[in-house]
Amino acid sequence: MTDKTAEKAAAMPGAAQGGGFWKNNLREYGMLLSLFVIMLFFEIVTNGTLLRPLNLTNLVLQNSYIVIMALGMLLVIVTGHIDLSVGSVAGFVGAVAAVLMVTYDMHFVPATILCLVLGGLIGAAQGYWVAYFKIPSFIVTLAGMLVFKGLALAILAGQSIGPFPPTFQKLSSGFIPELVPDMGSLYPTSLAIGALLALGLVWQSFKSRTRQEHHGIAVEPYGLFLAKNALLFGVIVYFAYLIASHRGLPNVLVIMVALIALYGFVTTRTTIGRQIYAVGGNERAAKLSGIKTERLTFLTFVNMGVLAALAGLVFAARLNTATPKAGLGFELDVIAACFIGGASAYGGVGRVGGAVIGALIMGVMNNGMSILGIGIDYQQVIKGLVLLGAVCLDVYNKRKA
Predict the structure, then answer these.
(1) Cys bridge to 137: 81, 168, 309, 384, which one at CB 3.0-4.6 A?
(2) Closest CA to 309 of 110, 166, 162, 121
(3) Quick one: which of 133, 22, 74 has its CA closest to 266?
């Protein structure tokens, strides 16, 4: 009987691969489907307001700092840790930027560099205690959350400081320059960039499938693969068209796409990326295999600090002022985005694409509920239930495995 089963499996490799693919990627496709359903729901109940060009651009601007920090938080969670201080660090760095640029009239370029270095030093300080002294990250970053929230209040003296120089404001509120004159209400350069991005992603998808087949990794059925890429191309071009119909591509969207591509490459195609997942999967086994686990943990917190600083600069540029309440609650949305996007609370599991999808789900929910006039109280309740559901699903899958 066993021989016959093996013969059947050998005779139907595509079916076997398809089954393995669905088993290994069910969560990722479930998140994509959830994002689609949520967007369709809010598009209907808001009478088409959600996907209007103006609102879509605002959606990007409102959630850019969440996506940026989610990329760093993903690596922290994958290693089996957490960072509760990212919101306070973002607010603190924004306050420092305001003091440097507004109070002391420093040029925005050196001020920005100093702020990013400051974020890295903050991440290094917290990562040092977590990595080398083995103090739980929850405690270290909870202390950091309080410390930097207090420091932001002290630097700003309880008041808002602004406005920022116009050039710095373009970091968040500016748009890429058009290479050719706009065609009425359409910005052709932005549309062309979106189409090129869509083509690049499809080409990369074909390359990745070829590489997986060469190594004997289970891949999705070919028909589904073609349909998925056709849909991906169409969706990206459509969204690029919508954004190009307003004012073109926001500068911060270009930054986000570049960071997503960079971290996607690091986590999937580099040695350090594979080592980070190994540490999260089994730290003791990773250390015995020669991986410097302490250094990797330390570096993930340094990276988180830099991205939190960048997010703080983006948020301050968007508000055009630094306020004592900046960054309040950011850590909740960032952590929720990672877990909703498939990161495991146990570490070792999570993808950049999933974190981005999770951030988009949170952003669409925030935006859609605001359009509908749902109060912030019930928004928090709904987001909390969504986060709880995502973690419960993770725990269920972990026990089932």
Answers:
(1) 81
(2) 121
(3) 74
User: In the predicted model, what is the mean pLDDT of residues 311-340?
Assistant: 89
pTM given for the model: 0.88
For the beta carbon of residue 93, count every other beta carbon within 10 angstroms: 31
Cα–Cα distance measured from residue 40 to residue 46, given in angstroms and rounded to the nearest whole number:
10
Instruction: List pLDDT tens digits, range 23-74.
Output: 556 666 677 788 888 888 888 988 888 889 888 888 888 888 999 999 999 9
pLDDT tens column, 226-244: 888 898 889 889 988 988 8
Contacts of 327 (CB under 8 A, 6+ apart): 86, 87, 88, 89, 90, 91, 92, 94, 149, 152, 312, 315
Measured from the Cβ of residue 319, the count of other Cβ atoms closer than 10 Å reads 18
Vertex 219: Cα angle to 216 and 220 (nearest 5):
160
| Region class of 102: left (phi > 0), else alpha (psi between -120 and 50), else beta | alpha
Neighbouring CB atoms inside 10 A of 264's CB total 17
Amino acid identity of residue 30, one-letter, is: G
Q: What is the DSSP letter of 346?
A: T
Among candidates 292, 294, 256, 302, which has minimal Cα distance to 271?
292
At 77, the amino acid letter reads: I
Mean pLDDT of 95-115: 93
Amino acid at 190: S
124-148 tens-digit pLDDT: 999 999 999 999 999 999 999 999 9
Q: Which residues pair with 186 in a beta bridge?
A: 183
Q: Which residue from 304, 280, 295 is spatially nearest to 144, judged by alpha carbons?
A: 304
Over residues 276-298, mean pLDDT: 91
Residue pair 50/43 in contact (Cβ under 8 Å)? The answer is: yes
What φ, ψ does residue 250 adopt, rounded to 5°? -65, 145
Helix (H, G, I), strand (E, B) or coil at 81: coil
For the chain, first and last CA: distance in Å? Answer: 26
